[in-house]
């Protein structure tokens, strides 16, 4: 049996409201913008979904993509809503600080199985563990 160590590099989320979504990731979760790219037409590999229009992607996270998990926010211009399926259940983050920021901003926080749950615009869930957020070493 071959065992390989690895990590998820990133998840791709399609977002309809780029400004509100950025505010959530930056102001509530405390992530930073790592890079942003604009594209004038659809991706041949359907990176932006089944759309043949102008789009962008913004990589956000807590540290560099080379050694941190990040989220790719894909924004298609002139697409105002996405239907979310049931395949993605959520991401768990250890961050007492994110819980405090959400409550201070009056962002909806609900309790579920002992975790604080917040939702990004568009419905992606984040399960927050009430422990200090790890720092880079």
TrEMBL record:
**Known InterPro entries for this protein?**
GLOD4, GLOD4_dom, Glyas_Bleomycin-R_OHBP_Dase, VOC_core
Lineage here is: Eukaryota, Metazoa, Ecdysozoa, Arthropoda, Hexapoda
> Coiled coil located at which positions?
none
PANTHER family xrefs: GLYOXALASE DOMAIN-CONTAINING PROTEIN 4
Concerning Pfam families, the annotation shows: GLOD4_N (PF21207)
Q: Identify the species of origin.
A: Graphocephala atropunctata
Residue stretches making up the VOC domain: 7-131
Instruction: Tell me what this protein is called.
Output: VOC domain-containing protein
User: Source organism's superkingdom?
Assistant: Eukaryota
């Amino acid at each position: 049996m071959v065992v390989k160590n690895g990590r998820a590099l990133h998840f791709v989320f399609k977002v309809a409201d780029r400004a509100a979504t950025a505010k959530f990731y930056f102001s509530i979760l405390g992530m930073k913008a790592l890079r942003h790219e604009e594209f004038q037409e659809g991706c041949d590999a359907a990176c932006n979904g089944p759309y043949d229009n102008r789009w962008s992607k913004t990589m956000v996270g807590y540290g560099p993509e080379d050694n941190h998990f990040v989220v790719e926010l894909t924004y298609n211009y002139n697409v105002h809503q996405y239907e979310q399926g049931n395949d993605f259940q959520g991401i768990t983050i250890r961050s007492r600080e994110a819980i405090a920021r959400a409550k201070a901003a009056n962002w909806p926080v609900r309790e579920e199985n002992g975790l604080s749950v917040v939702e990004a615009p568009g419905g992606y869930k984040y399960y927050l563990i009430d422990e200090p957020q790890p720092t880079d070493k």
